[in-house]
Amino acid sequence: MSDESLPHRILACVESIPRGRVMSYGDIAEYCGANTPRLVGRVLSLDGGTVPWHRVVRSDGSLATHKSDRQRELLEAEGVRFRRERVDMRACRWDGAQS
DNA sequence: ATGTTGACACCGG
DNA sequence: TCCGGTGCCAACA
Fold it and tell me: Methylated-DNA-[protein]-cysteine S-methyltransferase DNA binding domain: which residues (predicted)?
């Protein structure tokens, strides 16, 4: 399964997130076999923006630290439901296999 | 090898 | 629900 390197796997996973859906750093880490969610954030920062990074949020639904404004904008544009400053995980969480 | 840093997660108050 | 401290693991100087 891991014909690709871990960083590449993570990016592929993020790309697989459907429009209007989100995944937490921890979920992606587990799904891709990363030992720590911090690694996911690192990969995304290095990548720069060739993947829909805005669809990756914290496990509690809060947004990333520096780009939170931008991120919320993009997510709302995709129809993601917000509750104050947090994503409605209950409705938008994507596990990578859900229908 | 050791200490610092970070696009995180979890727990207690 | 909000805030702060603690635990994690990998990358870097």
Answer: 8-80
Structural domain count of chain A:
1
Question: Would the pTM of this model clear 0.90, i.e. be above it?
Answer: yes
Structural domain boundaries, residue A21: 3-92
- Within chain A, residue ranges assigned H as helices are 6-15, 25-32, 37-47, 68-77, 89-92
pLDDT at residue A8 tops 70: yes
Which CATH number is A56's domain given?
1.10.10.10
What is the four-CA torsion angle of A61, A64, A66, A72, rounded to 10 degrees? -50
Of all nucleotides, the one whose C1′ comes closest to residue A60's CA is B9
pLDDT above 70 (res A99): no
Q: What is the spatial distance, in angstroms and rounded to an integer, between the CA atom of A92 and the C1' atom of C6?
A: 29
Q: Which nucleotides of strand C lie under 7 Å from a protein CB?
A: 1-2, 8-11
A98 in a structural domain: no
